[in-house]
Amino acid sequence: MIYSFAERVGQIKSSVIREILKVTEQPGVISFAGGLPAPEMFPLEEMKEALGRVLDGGNASALQYGTTEGYLPLREYLTAAMEKKGIATRPAEILITNGSQQALDLLAKLFIDPGDRVVVESPSYLGAIQVFRSYQAQFVSVPTDDGGIELAALEKALEENRPKLIYITPTFKNPTGETMSLERRRQVAELLEKYQVPLIEDDPYGELRYQGESIPPLKAFDKGNRIIYLSTFSKTVAPGLRLGWIVTGPELMAKLVLAKQGTDLHTGTLVQQAVHYYLTHYDVTGHIQAIRDEYGRRRNTMLEAMDRRFPRGASWTEPEGGMFLWVTLPQQLKTDLLLKEAVAEKVAYVPGEAFFAQGGGHNCLRLNFSNSLPSQIEEGIERLAGLLTRYL
Amino acid sequence: MIYSFAERVGQIKSSVIREILKVTEQPGVISFAGGLPAPEMFPLEEMKEALGRVLDGGNASALQYGTTEGYLPLREYLTAAMEKKGIATRPAEILITNGSQQALDLLAKLFIDPGDRVVVESPSYLGAIQVFRSYQAQFVSVPTDDGGIELAALEKALEENRPKLIYITPTFKNPTGETMSLERRRQVAELLEKYQVPLIEDDPYGELRYQGESIPPLKAFDKGNRIIYLSTFSKTVAPGLRLGWIVTGPELMAKLVLAKQGTDLHTGTLVQQAVHYYLTHYDVTGHIQAIRDEYGRRRNTMLEAMDRRFPRGASWTEPEGGMFLWVTLPQQLKTDLLLKEAVAEKVAYVPGEAFFAQGGGHNCLRLNFSNSLPSQIEEGIERLAGLLTRYL
User: Fold this and answer.
1) Which residues form the Aminotransferase class I/classII large domain (chains A, B) (predicted)?
2) ipTM for this prediction
3) Among A97, A240, A255, whose Cβ lies nearest the Cβ of B9?
4) 3-class DSSP state for residue B97?
């Protein structure tokens, strides 16, 4: 039948990544396009044991309805984990979500009326752009450099636009892998005070550092509960569990709980209890270190292969962590057009434009290094270099 | 800090049930208030085994990101299950959701602009009322009788209001337990053709029939993909898994997939694979029959106790299935005021007003019989009868 949809549906479009992932499922394609963790690193045996333990002894609570806020022992665990990162919180100020993506949706639902302005980095995580767009937000894009969002441009954006929200991924940002400096974090926190605007800090990659000094999350510099901190177990345990969390103050938490209740009642009880068991009964620090070692190796393999093979004219970021790096080609090249040729050569990436809320990045592309084996990385970079050499 | 929320937040209020459940957590209270299945009936051992099998042999796909549509073998299983109910569909027309509640949220997101009209039964499921309200819908309430929604009133509502959506729970409705007759189903399907309006059929309780003849879902009478069918594993397997599904045509499915992608990427992979394993390796028919036998016993226990003890002036439904029955008291009694006294007597229910989108039901109350043991049901009804006898 012909449906009469809501106005916002005009804004809900298929993500470029989604369409690309379909193309790259062709056999033989080495895909640097997705944002998947390495399945070789999943704690399969440990999760199996944890699930078994949780269901032992007639523990029906693992299969029953649960509270909207989330499993209390897991929120207690996260309170201590946040403390170690310099974030003082309480279990009552943590909401368990179905991954960070749901956190973004709940926050957009609570904050965004059609036409409201949201400050995003340029480039930014495309899943966040999609969500804000689906609530009919207007974007104010602020450029970034290798020390994070540009401060003067951010202040100008706040001054001129009075946005509802700022959305930032300060650490190993998707798509560039870049990290906001310590000094910049202090300055951004001060700007939030001056302009009294809430900021969403999306931190899925914070644990994935392969070199350099650790920097506290932006939230650690928060002075008045202005920063809403999001993170996830998708990169440290496994994404198929769909477990993330939000840290914020009591006023916003009360609204978030109501929004989540209407959205899906609560996050799965079994998965929450099993992940809590896993976190408290296994060497999680060792597990995360193993992920760091492996991803660091893959990053190095990719960077070294690019150094050897990429033609002059291409430049790229050298991130200290995360899952992505970002390649910039000369202005005259269009990475979306180039992608067809790349797929014909059996290698894939995400064209840069997808990560810009208001255009830009047509000559850029994102490469993922966490989901391919080192031998595939070597081979895929060779294929890509061959293609680029024809144009540069 | 002081947040500037979106306009819709004014509509997002704490559910009465949520607040009540807190009160009824006091020790010694026999609660007929919640809508929980009996934890004694959960297939704990089977799920434990299923989860183990799914994680065996290095199956990392169970912990990896999955497709937004849901795990294909589960959608194939559901296609066959739907077929048995008279619903012809295909895996591509089934979306896996985090329980039915998420299905409602996704549909409201796609259909409802502020001020749009939604036809609901009077009374109706309060979780649905909450969701539509959070998208700033206007309600058009249509009365029901023991054969379902009143047809003439429904036609008048469609004629006068041109609603965006109709929302109905035709089988063992929450809160009354009543079921729409076969003839009424045919007539409603015809009205949908005449007025070209989509209808959401919410069917969480369809499998829970304890007496009488089975009736096909409303969707079985659908002529032009006008009926959007929702169901869930919450009542037949376990609610803590958060697994539901939507059946609809290809045009709407395309939009639903995009909306779900922005909302939380996809439903948990592990849980989908484990439930699929459970459904295909165990005697699920026998398991559901055991639930039917037990819930039927509890329903009978409640009805017999009410027959024996409730004073003249109270009347109630005698549903052939589901988890609830509905008590009507004389007009002068207010069940929300009475609740405090009931809790003092260590028994709880949900006051009727919660289930009316536009007021009504102040002299009614909902009783759940699935979550209490028969001995608790006897005792709880005795306490409630004692209270009612003081007023009747």
Assistant:
1) 43-384
2) 0.96
3) A255
4) strand
